[in-house]
Design goal:
The complex is a heterotrimer of chains A (649), B (157) and C (187). Among the domains of chain A are: 120 residues, no CATH class; 97 residues, no CATH class. Helices cover 60% and strands 10% of the residues of chain A. Chain A contains 19 helices and 10 strands. In chain A, helix 7 runs antiparallel to helix 9. The N and C termini of chain A lie far apart (59 Å). Chain B is mainly α and 157 residues long. Chain B has a domain of 67 residues: Cytochrome C biogenesis protein (Helicase, Ruva Protein, domain 3, Orthogonal Bundle), CATH 1.10.8.640. Chain B is built from 7 helices and no strands. With 187 residues, chain C is of the alpha/beta class. Chain C is elongated and about 80 Å long. The chains are: A alpha+beta (649), B mainly alpha (157), C alpha/beta (187). At the A-B interface, helix 9, helix 10, helix 13, helix 14 and helix 16 of A face helix 1, helix 2, helix 5, helix 6 and helix 7 of B.
Chain lengths: 649, 157, 187
């Protein structure tokens, strides 16, 4: 029953998407608005299809309906209830279903929000684009990534359950959906960019329309990536939160171009500049999400995150190639309309900073993409295997990170058009003191090493610049000084500074060691006393947990190892003692046995680690602030080249 | 300026003050982060609980204690398993491209931009917006309640 | 053609190359290193779990003084009590140990089977052999992990066959069968 319902849902979505796009195109060609409205309504049908399929899949998972092949392979009677819901996205086919659901959701909301604007050709073309992308994903679900294949379970069959690492942490329920809200969300500004190219209306229109959609997608993507890092940190046991694994890199690439895009649009809104950059950045962001999906699911690069492939690779690659071709062709065709009014007068200006920003993020994305696929290039041209791992990415991303911090510091104080040195010196005084102060403080508390100290200096520089902007804004507008695009943006920058401090400190000053302990034994590590006090064994529905109690400087931590019954897999569960100055993580490597109560534990100490998560939350908070309008709107508006500005109402 | 002096002194002091020398276990740990676990999907032995990763980690510690140098230890594992266990791409030969090309690309981009920048200065301005298009933008902005608020800095200009 | 348009063409060409590159890749996996085959076997000596000792060099030196019919072929099996493949292949090893190997003209050749423990401990090994049988030397001391790396072992089980003259004639990754191990043994 679930199979039928589920498949019907997918077919419905495919049919509705194709019909909708054809109807709207007909409405565009024949200039019949009525047709376009009808076409837009199909968005709801498409969404209904995905909702039905999701309902069917969830029902199958929760009732352990093993006649559905996906449930037979991923589900288990032993999986705890909440994790059944999350099992939907724990393997390939279900993850495409989640993608389809989110995409159809965005499609329906866009259709609703713009339902009275369909007379605008651009809106109509944007909908057509979104319909076509939705159709593609529905097609995937009827072809290589079919979640509703049938299975004939033998008597007494019980599935293996999802990978144990996907069953022991609450974040499995949040990280993928939020990440997808981010990835998929960029389809919206992309669709409008395509529409702008098709209609030739390449001014600020498409940017303004999609501003909030872009911000929302970016915020979700940022938060989704941070949650992924947090999850890794909580679960892995060696204090790592980012491995430069190909799939992780693939998720960072669209974030980089998306962040560049978010900033670069300001230059086009204010002065009509960087049009080609903006189009390229948003199209790149969308293309990179497809590329990322391809890398994750094709198996051409080995990764711990990779889903098993099942022939979906070629489909995704063809889609990527097709979209890339269309984008390049459209830009080529519309090339003459893309030249900006005016240009950048001086490199030392707000526009110049945005251009530099685009270059920095572009370079960052290039480095990560190159490092990730370089082994493939070597294999193709020279037939040998090499690896490009963390040492490469860390070394290369560090200077770029410093450049970005530097830009974060000076861009907010740079005026448009041209900056005088007197002005700059005046405005940068506070930030410069901020940088010097953080340097001095770092050295005083014992931080050593040229690179980390430089990083602390830049972070302080950038942080103080953001604080200065906020202070000035609050002085003018009291509490309202915190909301609005540029103020919210400064809060986000503060979050980035906190994140950077956490990254620099934790990666430069990590210390780790493992110890064998008898019950009652104490060792000293990094100034803290670690005592093995006791142990216990707990039996759950799907696993057996060996837990030990370790006293770290007065607090009890309880790391454990869990053996999952269905697969026999051993999954460690470390615990962390967090403080604002450092994190101490204890992982159990070797549990006590009946005749040998000694254990092996691994202790990892990283300073300032919690600030990575705090910074992430501040970034999220800042995005929300950014979305709140800061001034009440009045009649006249700021036009690109006007110098007079509208006071708040 | 006092500020620059303070910052410079702090930076130089922090960079050249020896701090604690690297202990053998720290050296072993940083080496382990550059050697891939042969049985894993590209993870370093420092981040894997696979049996071979544990073995190699222990052996690296052994070799550090025995006094071998970093490059000797890395060469040993490359010898035994292949170049791909070295997570640091080589800086000679074809592989050095991965280190060099980002700088090349950035250099070309900067060069291209400078070229375009100087060319634009001598070109006439590009396509102007038509009256209709300006009107359309005004409409869109009105409808969308966008908040192009000024930043405090701009009022100073 | 303008700078922009030529830039676009270049970008298009690079993109095509990029897509072709991705399209022509197969799935990536780490290949075991078979460089060892045909080379002299790395020498090693280690203690057994039952208190004895084994030295590969002794066997090879002794081989030089023997006629081909009496020379000893050494099979080195890297194993662990936690590895399921080792359980699967154990019967085959038992057969090899008990029956020996025969050359192509039907002569029974001298063979010696030793297991080298890989990331394991004495207690679990003893339990394994109690449960599944077998009484050939099992080597375990602080040096045996290094031996495994010297033989480019990636995980258990792996087996290496050493000819009487000390050259490695084959390396088999994964559970072994009697036929695979004894094929090619001549004396």
């Amino acid at each position: 029953m679930n199979l039928v319902i589920g498949s019907m849902g997918v077919v419905l979505t495919l049919a509705a998407s194709l019909t909708g796009s054809l109807t709207i195109v007909a409405g565009l060609k024949k200039s019949r608005e009525r047709l376009r409205s009808i076409g837009a309504k199909y968005a709801w049908v498409a969404f209904a299809g995905m909702a039905i399929s999701t309902f069917a899949m969830q029902r199958a998972l929760i009732t352990r309906d093993f006649s559905v092949k996906y449930v037979a392979e991923q589900g288990s009677s032993l999986t705890p209830p909440l994790y059944n819901v999350a099992t939907m996205w724990s393997a390939l086919e279900g993850s495409i279903l989640l993608w389809g659901l989110v995409l159809a959701g965005y499609l329906a909301i866009v259709a609703k929000k713009f339902s009275n604007r369909l007379s605008d050709e651009m809106v109509s073309w944007a909908l057509v684009t979104m319909f076509l992308v939705t159709a593609f994903f529905a097609l995937l679900m009827l072809g290589p990534a079919n979640p509703f294949q049938s299975f004939d379970p033998p008597l007494g069959y019980d599935g293996p359950g999802p990978n144990p690492l996907l069953q022991n942490h609450i974040l499995v329920a949040f990280h993928p959906p939020i990440l997808y809200l981010g990835y998929v969300g960029f389809t919206v500004p992309f669709a409008f960019a395509i529409a702008a190219l098709v209609t030739g209306r390449l001014g600020e229109g498409w940017l303004l329309i999609t501003r909030r959609w872009t911000l929302f997608s970016w915020a979700c993507l940022t938060f989704g990536i941070i949650l992924g890092a947090w999850w890794a940190y909580d679960v892995l046991g060696w204090g790592g939160y980012w491995g430069w694994d190909p799939v992780e890199n693939a998720s960072l690439l669209p974030w980089l171009t998306g962040t560049a895009f978010l900033h670069s649009v300001l230059a086009q809104e204010r002065r009509g500049l960087l049009r080609v950059w903006n189009l390229s950045l948003v199209c790149s962001t969308f293309l990179l999400t497809i590329l990322g999906t391809f890398i994750t699911r094709s198996g051409i690069i080995a990764s711990v995150h990779a889903f098993s492939e099942g022939g979906i690779g070629p489909w995704l690659l063809w889609f990527f190639a097709l979209v890339l071709l269309i984008v390049l062709a459209l830009i080529f065709w519309r090339g003459d309309r893309l030249r900006s009014q005016g240009g950048i007068d001086s490199a030392l200006s707000r526009e110049g900073a945005f251009l530099a920003n685009n270059l920095a993020f572009g370079a960052f994305a290039f480095v990560i993409l190159l490092g990730t696929i370089f082994p493939l290039i070597v294999e193709a041209t020279q037939n040998r295997q090499i690896s490009v791992g963390a040492p490469y990415f860390e070394k290369m991303s560090m200077p770029i990170g410093f450049v970005i911090l530097f830009l974060m510091a000076i861009a907010p104080v740079l005026p448009w058009r041209k900056a005088g040195t007197e002005l700059l010196r005046d405005r940068l005084e506070w930030p410069a003191w901020g940088g010097a102060l953080s340097l001095v403080v770092a050295v005083l508390v014992g931080a050593r090493g040229f690179i980390p100290l430089l990083g602390f200096g830049f972070a302080g520089f950038a942080g103080m610049s953001a604080i200065r902007h906020l202070a000035l804004s609050v002085r003018r507008n009291k509490v309202r000084g915190f909301v609005g695009r540029s103020n919210g943006g400064m809060v986000v920058h503060l979050g980035v500074v906190m994140l950077s401090l956490g990254l620099i400190a934790s990666s430069s000053y990590v210390s780790q060691s493992s110890f064998t302990l008898e019950p009652g034994e104490t060792v000293n590590f990094g100034g803290a006393d670690i005592t093995y006090e006791s142990s216990e064994q707990i039996v759950y529905s799907n696993r057996i947990q060996e837990k030990v109690q370790i006293r770290v400087d007065g607090d009890i931590l309880q790391p454990s190892i869990e053996r999952f019954t269905a697969s026999g897999q051993l999954v460690p569960s470390p615990t962390t003692k967090t403080s604002s100055s450092k994190d101490i993580q204890v992982a159990l490597l070797d549990p006590p046995e009946d005749d040998d109560q000694s254990i092996v534990i691994q202790i990892t100490e990283q300073p300032l680690l919690v600030w990575i998560w705090v910074g992430g939350f501040v970034m999220l908070f800042g995005s929300v602030l950014s979305a709140i309008p800061s001034t009440k709107r009045k009649q006249t508006l700021v036009m690109p080249n006007e110098s007079s500005v509208q006071a708040e109402g | 300026m006092l500020l620059a002096l303070v910052a410079l002194v702090a930076l130089l002091y922090g960079s050249f003050d020896a701090g604690d020398p690297e202990t053998p276990s720290e050296r072993a740990a940083s080496l382990a982060a550059t050697i891939a676990c042969p049985q894993c999907s590209g993870q370093p032995v420092s981040e894997s609980s696979a049996p071979i990763a544990q073995v190699i980690r222990a052996e690296i510690k052994e070799q550090v204690d025995q006094g071998r140098s970093d490059s000797e230890i890395r060469a040993y594992y490359v010898e035994q398993y292949g170049q791909w266990v070295n997570l640091n791409p080589s800086s000679s030969g074809f592989d050095s491209l991965v280190w060099i090309s980002p700088f090349l690309v950035v250099g070309i981009a900067l060069g291209g931009l400078t070229l375009a920048f100087s060319r634009r200065k001598s070109d006439s301005t590009g396509i102007e917006l038509t009256k209709d298009e300006e009107e359309q933008i005004r409409e869109i902005r009105k409808v969308h309640r966008t908040d192009l608020e000024t930043s405090p800095n701009d009022l100073n200009t | 053609m303008s700078l922009g348009k030529s830039g676009l063409i270049i970008l298009a060409v690079v993109s095509v190359g990029f897509v072709v590159l991705l399209a022509t890749r197969g799935t990536q996996s780490n290949q075991p290193n078979f460089d060892l085959v045909g080379e002299p076997a790395p020498l090693f000596q280690a203690d057994t779990v039952t208190g004895g000792e084994f030295d590969l060099e002794d066997v090879l030196i002794a081989n030089r003084a023997l006629i081909p019919k009496d020379q000893v072929w050494v099979a080195v099996n890297f194993f662990a009590s936690w590895c399921t493949g080792c359980i699967i292949e154990h019967d085959e090893l038992l057969a090899f140990h008990d029956e020996g190997a025969f050359s192509s003209n039907g002569v029974k050749c001298n063979t010696k089977l030793v297991s080298v423990a890989f990331n394991d401990n004495a207690k679990d090994i003893e339990r394994f052999f109690e449960k599944y049988g077998g009484d050939w030397p099992v080597l375990l001391d602080e040096g045996t992990n290094r031996v495994a790396i010297n033989y480019s072992v990636m995980t258990a089980p792996e087996t290496v066959l050493i000819a009487p003259n000390g050259l490695v004639t084959k390396k088999i990754v994964g559970p072994i069968t009697y036929e695979k191990l004894s094929a090619g043994i001549e004396c």
